Amino acid sequence: MHAWPASEVPALPGQGRDLRIHDTATGGSVPLDPGPVARIYVCGITPYDATHIGHAATYNAFDLVQRVWLDTKRQVHYVQNVTDVDDPLLERAHRDGIDWVALAEQQTALFREDMTALRMLPPQQYIGAVEAIPGIVPLVERLRDAGAAYELEGDIYFSVESDADFGKVSGLDAAAMRLLSAERGGDPDRPGKKNPLDPMLWMAAREGEPSWDGGSLGRGRPGWHIECVAIALDHLGMGFDVQGGGSDLVFPHHEMGASHAQVLTGEFPMAKAYVHAGMVALDGEKMSKSKGNLVFVSKLRRDGVDPAAIRLALLAHHYRSDWEWTDQVLQDAVARLGRWRAAVSRPDGPPAEALVEEIREALADDLDAPAALAAVDRWVARQDAEGGSDIGAPGVVSRAVDALLGVAL
């Protein structure tokens, strides 16, 4: 599966800052010190109802991570999946009377278009669950043969008790885990499971549903968590720098994925930092597919909204915060974009070197994009009030905003 084209990232003078970021597993800020190649895995979409603002906010956060690393002159190895077969996708295809493969392809193509418009840097590997099946099957067999998985009526389940470190990503107790498992695709009440929290690794073929040859597992399709584990281990290996996604993935997805990988490899942890973006609400409720209260990037673009304004609307909120999308949020972003473009269109302005360092410092401090925007606002206000005589300053500001914030002025 192919990703989307990369926009050019301008090189800036000076040296970028190393990133400190909030790690869900430890509950605190941790310094990230990757080697020459920083490794990041971000969980991708299940391709229906793409791309809503909640998606965009999540991928914007991890785009900033990449931009901070690139500014330190590191390379970035970024991997993202597409869950192009799963119950919600099949249910939506059945509801709408469309072939599930066609729905997945259509929505993945739309996602690519939106990511391109928003100037999100693409992954080096963009892997669908279906194409990953040949690599998933051997992992499930290994877990089963090691006694870390078991069969129940043809389905294969992972035993969470096989991982001594299970629970260290989310820090939740068993009761909270059970509630979230029921809400987020698990089946804690299924009779016969060794532990209610045990997640499915391989679902035996169901009548009327797609299935693949699973070797000794029989025909079926993979569970959600093992999909990402197989892709991440294949392309990044253990101990990569950042595992990313929305905060709704902390449990069960990232918790279960970490346990799968740790049992398979005997190493801990799967990722050095687990980083999660907040949720976006609309009309007082979390924006979600199940509620249908979605604002789509493609719809905003069709209505003539500049993608740079959409990106500024996302950047106005700290990535870990939960916030609400409103017309005012977008209006403020459109107005800010207009002010910034007017300021950098002038032939000269106030010196900008200090501004570049302010943006760097803000982003290095747990991706504080609102502080970075405020710094640019101050430079623009000086430009409006005083002007300046530095003929290179507007260009420096334009390149810095593009390189570090992904906003083309």
> Proportion of β residues?
15-25%
CATH superfamily of the largest domain: HUPs
Summarize the helix and strand pattern as letters. EEEHEHHEHEEHEEHEHEEEHHEHHHH
Radius of gyration: 22 Å
Q: What's the tally of helices?
A: 13
Structural description of this entry:
The mean pLDDT is 96. The chain folds into two domains: 20-297, HUPs (Rossmann fold, 3-Layer(aba) Sandwich), CATH 3.40.50; 299-405, Up-down Bundle (Four Helix Bundle (Hemerythrin (Met), subunit A)), CATH 1.20.120. The protein has helices at 53-71, 87-96, 100-117, 129-145, 174-183, 224-235, 250-265, 297-302, 307-315, 327-344, 353-364, 369-386, 393-405, and strands at 20-23, 28-31, 37-42, 75-82, 125-128, 149-152, 155-158, 200-204, 220-222, 240-246, 271-277, 280-282, 285-286, 323-324. By secondary structure, the protein is an alpha/beta fold. It starts with 19 loop residues before the first strand and ends with a helix. A hairpin with a 2-residue loop joins β12 (280-282) and β13 (285-286).
Record keyword descriptors for this entry.
single chain; alpha/beta; Four Helix Bundle (Hemerythrin (Met), subunit A); 2 domains; four-stranded antiparallel sheet; 15% strand
